[in-house]
Amino acid sequence: MNNFAMWESHARGKKHAKNKKKAEEGARTNDNFIEAPQGTISHLEKLINEQCDPNDIIIGLNFIRENQGDNGYLYNCFLCGSVCTTIDIIDHLHLKKHKTKYLEKMLSDGHQNAINEINSLSIGESAKEGLIDSECGMMLKEHGRGKVVIALTKRNFLM
Predict the structure, then answer these.
(1) Are 65 and 76 in contact (CB under 8 A)?
(2) Residue pair 94/106 in contact by the 8 Å Cβ criterion
(3) Which residue, among 98, 100, 137, has the nearest Cα to 119 in the 3D structure?
(4) Are 115 and 31 in contact (CB under 8 A)?
(5) Partners of 149 in beta bridges
(6) Pseudo-torsion of CA 88, 30, 149, 157, nearest 10°?
(7) Where is this region: Disordered (predicted)?
(8) pTM (2 d.p.)
(9) How does strand 72-77 pair with strand 82-85?
(10) What is the pairing mode between strands 82-85 and 149-153?
(11) Torsion of CA 124, 126, 132, 138, to 10 degrees
(12) Distance between CA atoms of 26 and 128, rounded to whole angstroms?
């Protein structure tokens, strides 16, 4: 899209509205996955315990689906629309984008925070990142990290 008029036309289109609605619906297991049995251990939570400092601000785990399969693990972040491998997931959870999306979602769900005020400030991105971390730290104390949703590939489950 090379100009604003084209973008506006796209944003008003049926396909865009349909995709936007799908993204807002959040995590669902699809035909390839089934919900893991109660007590299934999250590989991501093990990674966090091994690789992260207890003071690291890790939030929004309830928006992460861990897909466990023969070939390892894949992670869907339903806040950001990202798919990560085991190598990338910890870095993703530390990103400003993930934390911002978490605060925006929490605000839309009625949990007061200052993300709109932070985003409107005329300061550098690194300064905003510090404010976002601070805001996430307060949300972490109040709501915790969240719990990862675990899904198994159907093929694994049937074997």
Answers:
(1) yes
(2) no
(3) 100
(4) no
(5) 65
(6) -100
(7) 1-28
(8) 0.76
(9) antiparallel
(10) unpaired
(11) -130
(12) 27
Helix (H, G, I), strand (E, B) or coil at 111: coil
Distance from the Cα of residue 141 to its chain's centroid: 18
Sign of the C-alpha dihedral computed for residues 50, 140, 78 and 114 taken in this order: negative
User: Across the 159 residues of the chain, what is the mean pLDDT of every consecutive 10-residue run?
Assistant: 62 67 47 84 95 96 94 94 96 98 97 97 95 98 96 63
**What gap in Å lies between CA 93 and CA 42, rounded to an integer?**
15
Joined tokens for residue 115: 């993300």
Give residue-wise pLDDT tens across range 16-56.
Answer: 666 555 444 444 446 778 888 888 889 999 999 999 999 99
Question: What sign has the CA pseudo-torsion 6, 9, 11, 16?
Answer: negative
The helix/strand count (H/E) of the chain reads as 8, 5
* Average pLDDT for the chain: 86
Sheet order of strands, 72-77 included: 33-35, 149-153, 64-69, 72-77, 82-85
Single-letter amino acid, residue 150: I
Q: How far apart are the first and last CA of the chain?
A: 47
